[in-house]
Structure formats: C-alpha cells, structure tokens
Amino acid sequence: MTDAKESRKDEGPQVDRHMIEALVCPVTQTTLSYDAEKQELVSKAAKIAFPVRGGIPIMLVDEARKLEE
C-alpha cells in the first residue's frame, strides 16, 4: 500500500499556487498560467514560457522559451 507522501515524492517539488498567482510576466506585467506537464509559467501576452526548476520559477527573460505561433 502506497501512502500520499510516497506518491508525491515521484512528482518532484511542489509549486506553491499562491506564489504563482502573485507572479506576473516581467515583460508585459500580465498574469501567467502554469503548465504542470512542462514545468513552465506561460505568458500568453509575451509568447514566452519561464521554466520552473526544483519548484522555483526562473523569471529571467534570457531563460525563457519562445512559444511557437
């Protein structure tokens, strides 16, 4: 039998939902959406995605990935 702590361990670090809600895109100052599958914070307005590494958002434009059109 697997307990909840063991199943969460496989998912990696948890991202704090309140922190994500407080963050805005450093380029456009608009809200971000979280893509849990890709571990990214997405700015639809700027068409870029910021990586989340170890549960920590990397909000540097140089680290962001450009989204495909």
From TrEMBL:
This is UPF0434 protein O2N63_02200. Signal peptide: none annotated. Transmembrane segments: none annotated. Belongs to the UPF0434 family. Pfam families: Trm112p (PF03966). SUPFAM superfamilies: Trm112p-like (SSF158997). It comes from the Bacteria. InterPro entries: Trm112-like (IPR005651). It comes from Aliiroseovarius salicola.
